[in-house]
Amino acid sequence: MRLEIHGLTKRFGTFTANDAIDLVVEPGEVHCLLGENGAGKSTLMNMLYGLLEPTEGTIELDGKPVSFDGPGDALAAGVGMVHQHFMLVPVFTVAENVMLGREQTRAGGVLDRNAARAKVRELSERYGLKVDPDALVEDLPVGVQQRVEIIKALANQAEILILDEPTAVLTPQEIDELMDIMRELKAQGTSIIFITHKLREVKAVGDKISVIRRGKVVGTASPDASEAELAELMVGRSVSLVVDKDAARPGAAVLSVRDLTVIDPRGHMVVKDVSFEARAGEVLGIAGVQGNGQTEMIKSLLGLVRPDAGVIELDGRDISRHGPRQSLEDGIGYIPEDRSHDGFVGTFSVRENLVLDLYRSDEFSSGPRLRLGAIEENARARIAEFDIRTESPETPVASLSGGNQQKVVVAREFARDLKVLIASQPTRGVDVGSIEFIHRRIVESRDSGTAVIIVSTELDEIYALSDRIAVMYDGRIVAVVGPDTPREQMGLLMAGAVPDQPTTSSDGAVA
Amino acid sequence: MSAPLSPQTETVTPEPAGARSSRDLTRWLPTVRDTLVAIVLAFAVGALLIIVSDEESLEALGNIIDHPGSFLVYLGDFVRHSASAVFDGYSALVLGSVGSASSLERTLERSAPLICAGLGVALAFRAGMFNIGAQGQALVAALAAGYVGFTFDLPFLVHLCAAVAAALLAGGLWGGVVGLLKARTGAHEVITTIMLNQVARFVVLFFLAKEAFQRPGSNNLETPVVAESARFPQVFGLHLGIVLAVLAAVGVWWLLERSRLGFEMRAVGSNPEAARTAGMSVAKVYVAAMALAGMLSGLAACMTVLGLSQSVTENVMGSVGFDAITVALLGRATPLGTVLAGLLFGALSAGGVRMQTSAGIPPDLIQVVQALIVLFVAAPALVRGLTRVRRRTTTETKEAGA
């Protein structure tokens, strides 16, 4: 089945999540969608799967325009989707899960389990998906559960299969098996839309690659493009951000990290022996494709995750055992990467969110009592200073636009004296005007002597702000380079290709 | 992005002092309306039940079917009888709850413990926890208050304060344990509170069987009577309980809206991840909220044990702890709402007695009406569906015009 998408656009209020996307998926093709989180891949797929209604544009299947009023319509039209989080009933068997929603019955309404079993066997033989139809889903490893999801879609005669970041939950061996399954599906004529942000996988199975950034298709490539080219395409160069700033005057090292190691709850080592220094009056950019340990590293700096080894020193004092409250008191400011998850309380008003981590100070409370007057005054001052577009200080933050929500977080973090500012994806999902504003404030903070750490998967942002750039790949800092490093070399570093020359930057920082 | 610049800058200018309260009002208006509609609907269904349980109405209905020729005559009979049955029943309810000084007093007496325990449920709810354990918390508190009340011999105010303090301590511990379990082990509070209700029941039974808790000369499991010096006095002719309940509501309001701890509670209740990232201790909030909830249930127990019953039995708390959940739900987990809901339920309970004696309607009807109110409140879509028909047609025409 041939899928064509023309000018598909989705707007949420003033925010454009998908901007006039064109895409063609040929029958029996593995079409890779490459892009960072928040780039708009999920919005696009949700429209394809009938979960969201497009604002503009058309979807055509085999040349006929279709409109889906829910996943039921999409399934009927032959579009199947394997979600990142599986939609299986754990206490049912594989066969029961596959028949779920279209149960065949024999006389008297008795479930025809045998038919379902036979279907599972047939599909697993045809596509090489090894699954026991009578196994309970909860007993199966994640990789096999994923196969059950694929069988479910195939049992429903899906001719276009959307795989939403299928490898995120798999072990390397399971990934190899999934790749084999995808090749087999393709050989038998199923089209696959494969969403990922891992370059290696794209090169392994892709026939065509489309790269999405900030809601737009910014480029297409063939799988024989180098990983460096793909990395560059993904993190961008089309929009050049210019931030007006003077040369940094770096002072002493404020935050120094030595041999930091973090093991995630699944037992994977996600940060491996990372060492670096952040210096007063300087912006250290941390570049890298998403999922290379940046998130976990930052969380451990904040005390939100306990490091499993290594030392974090602030002004020479070991803070590696400090929790989030002490880190705040130590003078670390934090702009989290997912603001609605841990950056603000959505039901709280702008006024309350502007003191979410400041309410303990003498300025905003005396004894057990909050000083509402001071909180109100603070809100008015911040709203004016940061140009937060809100109906009033009483408006719940959840009802603001993404850019204004981010300004609330930024305004709050800049409201106190900081030794270190850690900003993770500070402009994700933020409109262009707000991006400029936030960047300017970050540079101002640098100039006033704060050590700034910027984590971004957008290379433009890294280049625009950083005085030094550390590149993370697979949990390690593979290089620390200057801001004049050519993009080509940067792409190589982000793809894990460590160059031959020693990765010591001009100013002496050791990788 | 730049187009809406000019109109939006206006909104940043300071507004008159009254503006905020009027905006609060408009925000609450739909909720208040839904609640009132739910109450009216519940009483309407209650009226139907009164009619079908009224013999004269049923007889008239039977006559309509038996003598279709005299349809209009018997229909008139039916309408007359059923109207008078409903009127008799509901007027008895009103008279019995607010019709005289003594009935009003009874209403307030019954409302006070409901309000206090309801505040406990509401407070925990605002901190993100569903406290099903008000009953257990109140039971252990009742035992503690009673024990201090009938065992010791102390001067008047000292004795009362000691008994109340014992109840708050017991209730606070019984609730605090739940918060601690949740914070330390992740045990879900719904499970632990339900289980602790059972534990509390049997702990009370265990102690009631001890000699130190047995009323001399009684064959029932009941404690001695609480000493005069530990009983609730009258304040300006009002039962002290309702005064305390209102004070507790003001206290809870202050805690939630004006204090640091309340700020933390609301933040944790709404987004624990953001609260933790902002340096709040989620564990501390869980423990504090549940301990305070237990103390409020304990206060409810005081009102019963040191006020109305003046001794402790297995059933001394009735179903106050469970009704408290309904009261908090109806009051939308706000202090003012909980007070109003507690007053309504107290009035229904007091008026139900009069309804039975003077109109012969079984008191179970009150429970049905209470349950229906909650049902309608919990299903706002249903209530809106019933009241929306006209509004939807107007918006449709508007959309069609646009």
UniProtKB/TrEMBL annotation, chain A:
<dbReference type="GO" id="GO:0005524">
    <property type="term" value="F:ATP binding"/>
</dbReference>
<feature type="domain" description="ABC transporter">
    <location>
        <begin position="3"/>
        <end position="239"/>
    </location>
</feature>
<dbReference type="InterPro" id="IPR017871">
    <property type="entry name" value="ABC_transporter-like_CS"/>
</dbReference>
<dbReference type="InterPro" id="IPR050107">
    <property type="entry name" value="ABC_carbohydrate_import_ATPase"/>
</dbReference>
<keyword id="KW-0547">Nucleotide-binding</keyword>
<dbReference type="InterPro" id="IPR003439">
    <property type="entry name" value="ABC_transporter-like_ATP-bd"/>
</dbReference>
<feature type="domain" description="ABC transporter">
    <location>
        <begin position="255"/>
        <end position="499"/>
    </location>
</feature>
<dbReference type="Pfam" id="PF00005">
    <property type="entry name" value="ABC_tran"/>
</dbReference>
<protein>
    <submittedName>
        <fullName>ABC transporter ATP-binding protein</fullName>
    </submittedName>
</protein>
<dbReference type="InterPro" id="IPR003593">
    <property type="entry name" value="AAA+_ATPase"/>
</dbReference>
<dbReference type="InterPro" id="IPR027417">
    <property type="entry name" value="P-loop_NTPase"/>
</dbReference>
<keyword id="KW-0067">ATP-binding</keyword>
UniProtKB/TrEMBL annotation, chain B:
<feature type="transmembrane region" description="Helical">
    <location>
        <begin position="132"/>
        <end position="150"/>
    </location>
</feature>
<keyword id="KW-1133">Transmembrane helix</keyword>
<feature type="transmembrane region" description="Helical">
    <location>
        <begin position="35"/>
        <end position="52"/>
    </location>
</feature>
<feature type="region of interest" description="Disordered">
    <location>
        <begin position="1"/>
        <end position="21"/>
    </location>
</feature>
<protein>
    <submittedName>
        <fullName>ABC transporter permease</fullName>
    </submittedName>
</protein>
<feature type="transmembrane region" description="Helical">
    <location>
        <begin position="156"/>
        <end position="178"/>
    </location>
</feature>
<feature type="transmembrane region" description="Helical">
    <location>
        <begin position="329"/>
        <end position="353"/>
    </location>
</feature>
<feature type="compositionally biased region" description="Polar residues">
    <location>
        <begin position="1"/>
        <end position="12"/>
    </location>
</feature>
<dbReference type="Pfam" id="PF02653">
    <property type="entry name" value="BPD_transp_2"/>
</dbReference>
<keyword id="KW-0472">Membrane</keyword>
<feature type="transmembrane region" description="Helical">
    <location>
        <begin position="285"/>
        <end position="309"/>
    </location>
</feature>
<dbReference type="InterPro" id="IPR001851">
    <property type="entry name" value="ABC_transp_permease"/>
</dbReference>
<feature type="transmembrane region" description="Helical">
    <location>
        <begin position="365"/>
        <end position="383"/>
    </location>
</feature>
<keyword id="KW-1003">Cell membrane</keyword>
<feature type="transmembrane region" description="Helical">
    <location>
        <begin position="236"/>
        <end position="256"/>
    </location>
</feature>
<keyword id="KW-0812">Transmembrane</keyword>
